[in-house]
Structure formats: C-alpha cells, structure tokens
C-alpha cells in the first residue's frame, strides 16, 4: 500500500478544515496558487522541479483510521468533532491541478501550480505541496546555474552526505533535470535511473600502507579506466605514483584540495609528460557556481566538476520562495456559483486574485522576452510558449513526465535565455519580466529586483 502523505502538513491546516466545516466555507469552490514574489539576489531565472513528486504526494494524501485516532488523541481534532473526523476519513483530492511541468523556467509571479477544488480539500495540501516544490526547485535552480557556469563540462552531484537521506534522492533528481550528468547516491540511481558513479575516498588511501598499494587495489577491482584520488599527501607525486601503478591508460585523477589554479595546469602537464594524455582531471572541494565560473574563466584544463553541499542546499538559497495563496473563492457551496477573485493588500506581499493564464513571448532574436499573466484568456502570439499544463484532473493524474522529458525541457527552455543572463552574476534579474493584462502588477520592477 502506498504510504500516506496526510501528516506531511502543518497543524493549522487541520484547524482551518475544522473551522471551515463549521462556518460552511469548506465546501465552497476555491482556487489556490503557488508562486514566488521574487527570485534570490543575482538569480535571473528559476527551474521548476518536484512536480512529479508533488502529484504523487497529492494522490497519496489519505487519512486512515490510525492517523485520525492520532489526531484526536493529540488534540489536533477535538474528540467530539465527528464532522471533521468523517471529512478526514473520506478525504480524496478530487479537484484539478494546473501547472508548469518539471524542467520549466519560472520567474516572479509565475503561477507554477494552480490548485482548484473545494476550499477544505485544497487548503489542506498547502504544506506538502510547498515543501516538495520549494526544496526541489531550489536545488534545480542552483544546479542549472552550475551547469551554465561549467560550459559543457561533466558534472557530478555528490551531496548526499550533506542533507537528509530522502532529500538527497530528491536533490539528485532535481540536479539531473537541470543538467548534472551523474550522482553518487545509489538510491537516486535505483529510484530514478540516474547514472551513478564513485571510486575511492581519502579513508581508502589512508587505510593502505602506501598510495601505490591503494592504487593497485583499485586498479584490480575497478580497472585502469576509473578515477584515482591523488591529493591525499602530495598531488603531483600522487599523479606520478598513480600513472606508474595504473599505466598511461589511467582514466582520471581527482583533485579535492589545494590551489586549483596552480595545480590543474601542472597536473595536466605532468600527465601528458607521463604519456597519460587521455586522462581526465576531476576537481572537487566546496565548489559552487561562482567557483566553477572562476575556474572556467581561467581556462584551466579541468574535465569534470564534483559538487556536493552547494547543489543539495540550493547554493545559499535552500527554498525557492514559493507561497501558496488563495486567489479565488465562491460565495456559497453551490458548485455552479462562480468564484470571485480575492487577494492580499499587505505592503510588499500583495497578491493578485483570479486564475492566471500565461504565455511567454520571444524577441526578434528568439530569446524569452516577457511572461504575460492574464486574468482573461486573450490572443496569444504564434511563437509564444504556453507553460501551463493540466497535471491532475478530477483527482487523477492527467500526465506523466519521464526524467528524460524534464531534462530535455530544462535544456531547451534555458537555451532561450540570453547568454549574459546565464552567468552567476547576470545582467538582468529577473531575465524575463512579468507583464500583467487585465490588472495592475503587484510590485514595481524595482521592488522585484530588490
């Protein structure tokens, strides 16, 4: 049986359910929207990830008898509140979810996900939806910046030891969508089919009496084509020993410490001198998009980057900034009653009510120009992109993306960005500006960029 996700939620969501059942609001048709008001500093775009996980979580959102008993026993649900108990026991999301698929780009106020149903069945999903999308999209957005900075070089995700085990699997998937080539995480490989890789660590080197013996053991097990860790004691001497033991057919060396600006060229020269001209140089050690860009700008002879902490933690921004807001609600519980737009007027947190119809336009050079958000469907230019798709219809999954689909989408969408915006310090932030039709924009562009 699929594991329930019903308690991946916050206490106040169930108190809202109970209160809205009492007031009558619970059964009114409503629309909620997931969006971010701004991107982190120096971010020109974001990458959507976690949509497939979110759909799975919504369809598995069930309150079994043991869960309901727990909620009553702990006082989350009042012992005499039979109405709420019955509602929880019968809960199945039966509404519609529209949104941007995995790998799509997002910008300030992009309606990444729109959830339609009754107020209670939608409001209870807030935390599980946000927790997945905020995490996965933060990782994918950071990973995409690293892919941009790496200029086509091989990228290895190796951050499993820097985060929760389940988060590590999700992070590996999000990074792969953004363009990372492999992961060190075996569960991510099993679950999502991501290529995995790994050879040895410093502990393996230190456990042997000498580097030569460690290299010999690795060669006997993994073959000469694997990557050998050479910086345990002295990097250049480690390279000499590795080539001596493995031979000039050695596949790669990894440098995890030291001044890479000085070491990488010397390592390349030494490998070539020793006849290991096809040996790859892999570097690691607290890399992020800024460091990768710095190394690339120096034109160092690096073939691959291994990134850990920075990618799985969103490179300084561990959440995408998504919020889940009510944007429309009906005046009564009659399913035929039309919804009216609602929105916050709080300074700096204003929201625009109503379902948003979106299309993204290109300029004369084919680059993404504007993301148009309209409350009423209008004429859409022929070359425009419509990023919204129906993800869930009447409570059932309406589409399914493969990881390869999402990866291809991400690469294609990012190719529409201007090159100067695909850097760690982009010219425009955001690269694509929202334009509102049928309403005033909620924030000025100056506020969006602050």
Low-confidence stretches: 444-450
The profile of the biggest β sheet is: 7 strands, antiparallel
Helix content: 25-40%
Radius of gyration: 25 Å
Number of strands: 18
Strand content bin: 15-25%
Distance between the termini: 47 Å
The number of helical elements comes to 16
User: What is the CATH T-level topology of the largest domain?
Assistant: nicotinate phosphoribosyltransferase
Note down, in words, how this protein is organized.
It is built from 16 helices and 18 strands. By secondary structure, the protein is an alpha/beta fold. It has 2 domains: 11-124 and 322-448, nicotinate phosphoribosyltransferase, CATH 3.20.140; 144-312, Alpha-Beta Barrel (TIM Barrel). Strands 13-12-1-5-3-16-17 form a 7-stranded antiparallel β-sheet. The longest helix has 25 residues, at 126-150. The two termini are 47 Å apart. Mean pLDDT is 94; it is low at 444-450.
